[in-house]
Amino acid sequence: MSKGQPEEHNDKDKDKSLEQEVRIYSLATTANECIVFLEEVKGNRLLPIWIGHSEGQAIAIKFSGIVIPRPLTHDLLLSTLKKLGCEVEKVVVHDLKDNTFYANIFLKVNGKTAVIDSRPSDAIAVAVRAGCSIFVEERVFQRCQVLNKPISETEVKKFKEDLKNLRPEDIFKDLKEKQKGKPEGKPPEKGGAEEGGKSEGKPSKKNKKEDGGESEEEKGNE
Fold it and tell me: Other C-beta atoms within 10 Å of 220: how many?
């Protein structure tokens, strides 16, 4: 490329970076973990992310409007940010790599924007408390097998039944095929993806991970 010549942009890559606004569609629990489903505000796709029970509870408590007498971890975090003059603008699930979802929390500090790396579960827990918008980048939808929202009562009933036996490999089974020939990102290994750091999707029994990135073993150290 000669000096001064504008850089060319690939429209396909540009589309992948678009942010799609989402909201919590539902939370489902299994024996060992919780699944948070994010739905497109202007679409019909659902993105399932496997998280730990404690993380799911932190989201559910605020999402359901339950009032607790003392602040939990995410309440404390938000209160601290407010005291320091920070405002939570939005949270974005921006990537899926090596079986792991990644998210960012965008803060407004003294007129400037600060971006904080986070697991999706923590980012969502903060978002429901701050009342800010949640976004998922288009490339995340394209890198995993998404679900479509049920429309009729029959579909809703079937969807709830299917959740009881839903496994991560059912969601990510086509990921390797979809990424064939694509240089970016490493396809998740068998077992699904989880949230950031470990996968926020569902990890294998041997090493379960979560969004933002933590395994079941790591949870005990948080």
Answer: 8
Q: What's the half-sphere exposure (Cβ side, CA atoms, 13 Å) at 108?
A: 7
Q: What is the pLDDT of residues 101-139, one digit of tens each?
A: 999 999 999 999 999 999 999 999 999 999 999 999 999
Q: Nearest CA to 166 among 78, 66, 34, 19?
A: 34
Q: How far apart, in whole angstroms, are the C-alpha atoms of residue 46 and residue 39? A: 5
Burial 143-166 (b: 16+ CB within 10 A, else e): bbbbbeebeeeeeeeebeeeeeeb
Domains and CATH numbers, the chain: 27-219 (3.10.690.10)
Q: In 3D, which of 51, 56, 45 has the Cα closest to residue 23?
A: 45
Indicate the SS3 state at residue 15.
helix
* CA angle (183, 184, 185) in 5-degree steps: 125
C-beta atoms surrounding 28 within 10 Å: 17
Task: For residue 130, give the H/E element and its range.
Answer: helix 120-130
- The DSSP symbol for 200 reads B
